[in-house]
Each structure stands twice: as C-alpha cells, then as structure tokens.
Amino acid sequence: MTIQPPATGCRDVPVLKERGQREVFCGLTGIIWLHRKMQDAFFLVVGSRTCAHLLQSAAGVMIFAEPRFGTAILEEKDLAGLADANTELDREVARLLSRRPDIRQLFLVGSCPSEVIKLDLHRAAERLSALHAPHVRVLNFTGSGIETTFTQGEDACLAAMVPALAPTQARELLLVGALPDVVEDQALALLSAMGIGPVRCLPSRRADDAPAVGPNTVFALTQPFLGSTHEALTRRGARHIPAPFPFGEEGTTLWLRAVAKEFGVSDATFDAVTAAPRARAIKAIASQADTLNGKTLFMFPDSQLEPPLARFLTRECGMVALEVGTPYLHRDILGPDLDLLAKGPVISEGQDVDRQLDRARAARPDLTVCGLGLANPLEAEGLTTKWAIELVFTPVHFYEQAGDLAALFARPLRRRALLNASKLEAAE
C-alpha cells in the first residue's frame, strides 16, 4: 500500500510563536519512567522537599518500596550558603552507594533550588565518578522546571549519557528514547525479522549493555522531544534517520520503512514482516475511529508529542485539527510528520496560556488536549479534555498499541456523551 501525503503539508507554514506564562510539569517527572527503564541506575535529585513530594506523588511510591530515585534535600542553611553543599552531597552519595551496591549508574539531577544557588553538579559528578569508579559512573543533568517542559528531563538525561558512550567503528542501528520494555521488544522483533542488526538501545536496560557510538552509527528516534540528544549524537558522528514517529499504523510503517531502506531491506521482506501487525493495527484503530471521525481537536503545548499525534488523529482517525501547539518545534526531527499533517490548523510554538485559552474558548473544540492544571477548569466550562501527560506514561508506540492510542482520545468523548445523556434523562 502506498501512503499518500497531503497536497500541502505544514512543514513550511508560518508558526505562531508565543512567549508568556506557561502551564507545564517540570522535567523531574521524566525520572518516573526513566528509573523503571534503567534497571541498575539511581536518580538522586538535589532539591527541596517539594521536589521529593512531586516525585513520590507522580510515582505512587509505597512507604515500604525501594525505588531507584530519591532526593538530597537542600535545607535552609544550604540555600543560605551556611553549609558546604558539596561536602553534604558527597556524604549522601557515599551513604547511598554503601546501602545500594546494585547501583551502576548514578544521576545527580539538578532542580530549581540547586540552580538558584548555582550548585555545580557537573563538577560534582566528575569528582564523584572518579571517586567511585569503576563500579559506578556518576553523571548529571537538570530537571529544573524554570525554563523547560516535563519531557525535556528525558532528553537532558540521554544527552548527558552520550559523551560517556564508548567509541565504535561498527555499522549499527541505535534506537533512541525510553520505551516500555514490552514495546521495545516488539520493535526489536520486527527489525530482527527484517534482518536488521545489530540494534542497540539508548537508554539500555542495564549499564553493561550501554551502546557505543561512532561515524558508522545510524540512529532512529522513538520520541519527538529528544532535540538535545539528537545534537549530542550528531556531534559524535552518528547520522539520524528522519521519519514520522511510530504512532498508529501509518507512522509505524513509515518509521520502519525508513530504517529498512537504510539497511537495504527488500519490499517483499518488509511487506511479509509487517503485513499481519499492520492489519491488526488498522482494525484496532477502526474500532475507535467512529467516535473520533469529524471531531475537532485543539492541542495545548505540553509534551512535545503534539505534531505527530495530530498527524495520527487527523489522517488515521478522521479528526479535524484546529490548533496544534508544541513547546518547541524542531523541524529536523518533526519535519516528516509536518509533511503529512494537512495544511489548515494553527501551528504554535511556546505558550502564552491566557491567549491560548481565549482561542480554545472561542473555537469550542470537541476535544482539547492539555495539562492537568488546565483540564478541570476547561471541563467545568463544558469542554472535553484529554490529559497530555497520560500520553507519555502509557504505551502508545508501534502497531500493537495503535488501538490503545486511539482509545485514549476516544474515551473522553464517550464519557462526555454519557454525561450529556444522563443529564437529558434527569431533566425528563
């Protein structure tokens, strides 16, 4: 089957750039899915008690659990400069590693408080890595929410790992982006069935399996918010395989086809490997598309998944996009998806939340995708909403999850229809 692009896509349309008040989670949230993925890593947030409460609430950690993240609390004396924060940090790291000998990678994660007092965690990571080598490698990245949106936490983490990856001259495929293990296994099985390999993953599940990178490495992104990681890998000599992101049947097929073309896979082999899962994906999406077809869509900038998801919802589910907002618009990464997104919706980058709320209220879309802080007020005004953060926490990539992805958007519309029906019954 040949996939036809629209007559005019959105790659070159004028972008509405907004700079104002924003409504987003901070980058510390990314630790929740990263610590589940990287099985021998530990994420130590250097921050306040508010940071600790955020992580515990987001992860739902039980009091008797032993998670692989924690917070080195900056007290008032630290913030006032009355204590040597580096000395205290060294002591906390030594205590942590003595209690948890299974840790092979330790990430010092910056926060708003640590950045305010100008604590140099990069230098601290270098010092601690030399002290605890070779058993533990210490790296650092920032999860501060001062200037970032929440998915940039993963981007900063992976970008921090790239300079430490071993060099290689081997021709290898690198899959970049944290996926649930079951989804990653599906992708690796499809690539293996086509004869593509060796395939490495960043992040790897264990430190000993960390990929190497060099001038013969080609990489495919699985998440659209990895701009810094893309740049870091390019600086190491690796080459990006541009493709739409693997959301839905079409996106997954085009992503796989781009990789297959890079490795010289024949059309016959490609079709033989993908035919059955493609058919399952098409059927699963069709079961949800009746609810979505013809409905209007308004996307606030939140997760950076907005452009590829808009492409999926308009082309495979029949929705009509009114505005597609994204915190950052990286054209080298999102270009293939923008080519497939038919011209029509407003494409906005950044946020001025009050102005965007005015546009959403004027448009009265059937479905609004936004952050948690906006969802309840908009619901109270009669708009149907979808939490953007759920799209990051839920397995949504590749063929087998295509129906689940469509269902995430269909479910709030069905809920609204049931509520309206109940109100009519009550009124009668």
From TrEMBL:
Gene3D superfamilies attached to this UniProt entry: Nitrogenase molybdenum iron protein domain
Keyword Nucleotide-binding: yes
Cofactor note: Binds 1 [4Fe-4S] cluster per heterodimer. The cluster is bound at the heterodimer interface by residues from both subunits.
EC class name: oxidoreductase
Molecular function per GO: 4 iron, 4 sulfur cluster binding; ATP binding; metal ion binding; oxidoreductase activity, acting on iron-sulfur proteins as donors; oxidoreductase activity, acting on the CH-CH group of donors, iron-sulfur protein as acceptor
Residue intervals passing through the bilayer: none
EC number assigned by the record: 1.3.7.7
Claim: Oxidoreductase is one of the keywords in the record: yes
Cofactor: [4Fe-4S] cluster
InterPro entries registered for this protein in UniProt: LIPOR_BchN/ChlN (IPR050293), Nase/OxRdtase_comp1 (IPR000510), Protochl_reductN (IPR005970)
Alphabetical keyword list: 4Fe-4S, ATP-binding, Bacteriochlorophyll biosynthesis, Chlorophyll biosynthesis, Iron, Iron-sulfur, Metal-binding, Nucleotide-binding, Oxidoreductase, Photosynthesis
Pathway field: Porphyrin-containing compound metabolism; bacteriochlorophyll biosynthesis (light-independent)
Catalysed reactions listed for this entry: chlorophyllide a + oxidized 2[4Fe-4S]-[ferredoxin] + 2 ADP + 2 phosphate = protochlorophyllide a + reduced 2[4Fe-4S]-[ferredoxin] + 2 ATP + 2 H2O
Sequence similarity: Belongs to the BchN/ChlN family.
Database matches in NCBIfam families: DPOR_bchN, PRK02842.1
Annotated function: Component of the dark-operative protochlorophyllide reductase (DPOR) that uses Mg-ATP and reduced ferredoxin to reduce ring D of protochlorophyllide (Pchlide) to form chlorophyllide a (Chlide). This reaction is light-independent. The NB-protein (BchN-BchB) is the catalytic component of the complex.
Assembly: Protochlorophyllide reductase is composed of three subunits; BchL, BchN and BchB. Forms a heterotetramer of two BchB and two BchN subunits.
PANTHER family: LIGHT-INDEPENDENT PROTOCHLOROPHYLLIDE REDUCTASE SUBUNIT N
Protein name: Light-independent protochlorophyllide reductase subunit N
